[in-house]
Amino acid sequence: MGNRYAIVLAAGQGTRMKSKLYKVLHPVCGKPMVEHVIDQVSSLGLHKIVTIIGFGADLVKSQIGTRSEYALQEEQLGTAHAVIQAKDLLQNEKGTTLIVCGDTPLITSETFEKLLKHHEETKAKATILTAYAEDPTGYGRIIRKNTGEVEKIVEHKDASDEERTIQEINTGTYCFDNESLFKALSLVSNDNVQGEYYLPDVIEILKNQGEIVAAYQTEHFEETLGVNDRVALSQAEETMRKRINKRHMINGVTIIDPNSTYISAESVIGSDTIIQPGTVISGKTTIGSDCEIGPHSEIKNCQIGDHTTIRQSVAHNSEIGSLVAIGPFAHIRPESQILDEVKIGNFVEIKKAVFGKGSKASHLSYIGDAKVGSDVNLGCGSITVNYDGQNKFLTTIEDGAFVGCNSNLIAPVTIGKNAYVAAGSTITDDVPSESLSIARARQVNKENYANRLKNKE
Predict the structure, then answer these.
(1) Tens-of-pLDDT digits for all 457 residues of the chain?
(2) Is 79 a known ligand-binding residue?
(3) What is the CATH number of domain 4-224?
(4) Has 228 been labeled as part of a binding site?
(5) Is the pTM above the cut of 0.70?
(6) What is the helix (H) or strand (E) element at residue 384, kind and residue range?
(7) CA dist., res. 26 & res. 265, Å (int)
């Protein structure tokens, strides 16, 4: 096996997407299309990857980073014109070059490897990745000789009635002998209606030179989908979602209803975890073993330990420990750290707070910009009043403290270790350890007052 290279075509704007976002940056299961392609290509152990960028060049580069080198296509004049932009980086290399479009997020490294292997075994100068299409309308058809060698590619609009019955189609992914590729590119003409330089013309040039052109037909037509509009984007999303869910189920995760469960490509989930219907797990989320998530929960960029339950709740950009119970209807906002054995109950909102081991906020509370120790109990309606209209302040609640229902803790303030705050208190000063703080008006009962009001009326 000789040296291998890849060129990823990612310069197009994608006008049919009707979007401000450049086409290859549209996400599929939470990851931009072009990044899916780069991930699969990178796993092949290639000597060099070159991504052709154009529209949104800086955004594409920031997404892919150092995993690729880049060549700029300033004008979009066709696929052959795009490939020739990699000339300075690749033209003197010997080996095989894989060319793939950045809007084909479903192609796997296994398919790429089979294509490369077939190309090298047949000693072809070019190999086309083909697929069998139930409905080949709109695709270029692969015309083969009796020997199986490719004779030509015929575009749908140019095909005869007989040729249109052929169901083997060109997917737009190719392997080339690298030196032959760049020599042939110099011969490609733009003498066509669009005035563009087309990569399939290289196939015809090589054929006319007497070179071998092969084709490898993948068994998985759905992998070859090119995303050019929002309809195809939804199809890619559905296929990728099924693939991701299947992978997790094979690895020991129970997904009750895969059709209503959305898991990002980067998420990691431990065995014996149960994902209930209507759950969305996105970003770089890690969930431990023996958890139960959902139903109807939204988890994004979180790290979650083992044996944790999250029901009908939202958690973003936070760390959640083991043996934690969250929900229903809780909201864990970014930069929160929920330690082990914590209970966060219904209609509790946590924001940028540390919640110590074994602590509880069971109902109807807001705990923001706070440091809560271990074994703390926050009664129903406990509020950390963290904002004065200009600045946020920290509330500290030390180990073992008990905060009664409907209490307001006006930050900055500290509730000491094992201290008690009486229900209904508004705390403006620190509460010493082992103390009871009562900060509410004394109750006054005015007997017969109701009768006096009635008589007055």
Answers:
(1) 689 999 999 998 889 999 999 999 999 999 999 999 999 999 999 999 999 999 999 999 999 999 999 999 999 999 999 999 999 999 999 999 999 999 999 999 999 999 999 999 999 999 999 999 999 998 989 998 888 788 888 888 888 999 999 999 999 999 999 999 999 999 999 887 788 899 999 999 999 999 999 999 999 999 999 999 999 999 999 999 999 999 999 999 999 999 999 999 999 999 999 999 999 999 999 999 999 999 999 999 999 999 999 999 999 999 999 999 999 999 999 999 999 999 999 999 999 999 999 999 999 999 999 999 999 999 999 999 999 999 999 999 999 999 999 999 999 999 999 999 999 999 999 999 999 999 998 889 989 888 888 887 6
(2) yes
(3) 3.90.550.10
(4) yes
(5) yes
(6) strand 383-385
(7) 14
The catalytic residue positions are: 363
Answer yes or no: is 78 a known binding residue.
yes
* Amino acid at position 390, single letter: Q
448 known ligand binder: no
Domain segments of the chain as ranges:
4-224, 333-457
| Amino acid at position 245, single letter | N
Task: For 363-399, give one letter per residue: b (16+ CB within 10 A) or e.
Answer: bbbbbbbbbbbbbbbbbbbbbbbbeeeeeeebbbbbb
Indicate the CATH number of 333-457 among 1.10.150.120, 3.40.50.620, 2.160.10.10, 2.40.50.100: 2.160.10.10
440 is in an annotated binding site: yes
